[in-house]
Amino acid sequence: MGKKSKFLSIALAITLVIGSLSVPVFAHPTKGQPQSMDNPLDKKVINKIDADNIYNTIDYLQQTPRVASTPEEYAAVQYVKGQFESYGYDVEVQEFEYFGYTAPHTIELTINGESLNPLPFTYTPSGDVQAPLQYVGQGTEAELEGEDLTGKIALVQRGTNSFAEKVINVAEKGAIGIIIFNNAAGAINGTLGAVDDRYVPAVSITQAQGSELVTKLHNGETVTASLRVLGADAGLRTSHNVIASKKPTNKKKDTGKVITLTSHHDSVPGAPGANDNASGTAMVLELARVFKNLPTDTEIRFITFGAEELGLIGSSHYVSNLPEGDLDRIVANFNLDMVGSRDAGELVINTVDGQPNLVTELSQASSLRLNGEPSRLGRSGSSDHVPFAEAGIPAALFIHSPLEPWYHTPEDTIDKISKEKLQDVAEIVGTAIYDFARFDNQTPKQPQKHNKIKLPKQMYFEESIQ
Ligand code: BES
Ligand code: ZN
User: Which domain holds residue 226?
Assistant: First the structure.
């Protein structure tokens, strides 16, 4: 809580000055000063939040990457479910299917006995083929007119048409594999865009390697290629969302509205995902624990999504499969994704269009109350708030910016997590949600001490002995 301790020292300095002038201990707020250090409503949430709980949950989840549809992601699903249940929630595990692709684990290319180091194209199928090489230019339909590539491996240059079109064109002429070489320096890190039954194993090599092969073929040499792509696999995959709902405390006071607090529990391959996004998931769990016994008049849904890293698949499934009427009842989506990195910048509240909405307004108000200045509003997609926003629901992503250098790397580990950042975000989001969902919100509230600062007791004491 760097900001808070900074505030304390500023407050102490102000106190000493004010004290010597013998003015009352209440001062008018200025930018940079918390305005409700002792707001009793915020305190009901803040007093319950324990950053150690969030930290320990991150530590547990980050023991292994949690790639969508792997046993490790499913173990995280079961862990999140168990934690929600331990707080007393009924939990729904929502299963969904999608068409997925697993990259090959082995790619080998040998030409006339000499081994090259090719790269696979994303969405290449597996295959183990050995055949004479035939050069067919850029593999356009025009160039392939009248060609027969039956039982051959095609050698093709990058350019003019897409990688996928080249693969399909040569396959339709009978080729059993394809090698695409670059038309500029450097490697090709390419994709065929989507799975297609017509594809044959497809790899890339450099421009220099390709030109050398073209020269050999032009000179009439026989060039035989042996291409092995193993472990690539396309097909239906299963993943899960975990949903725990806190219904309004008193049915008679039910506003009929729903607030969603979300995160994704999956990670990218090779990344333990301590910050991306065990942090958001652990914070959703902690806020579910905090809210369990707080009286509220608005439903709060705590949700962790699967398969975010593959394209927001879990959250898109959730939003597009909401029961009739639910979409109209959801008034807000608070999405936590990367909320605890020691090495990232400050908290930014991002909406898809960069415009304020209910979520940013509640959160900027709570951050102003807590930290003396509102957290910054920004613009970003790239996380699970997007399907909510696209469905017309006020939604925002809570993230620190700029990103830490460990993003999507094996270094995204627990030692980079800051308990102070966790506490700060959990307080801002928790009090913002409580501000809307608390029991008495629908009736005019007692005026709160929003425009007065009550200094901490200890400072009051120091000031009063002047
Ligand atoms: N945790 C990131 C979110 C993010 C948002 C990162 C904004 C950087 C900037 C998220 O898990 C992620 O990596 N998203 C993907 C896109 C997604 C649609 C697959 C990304 O940003 O590459
Ligand atoms: Zn993420």
Answer: 106-231
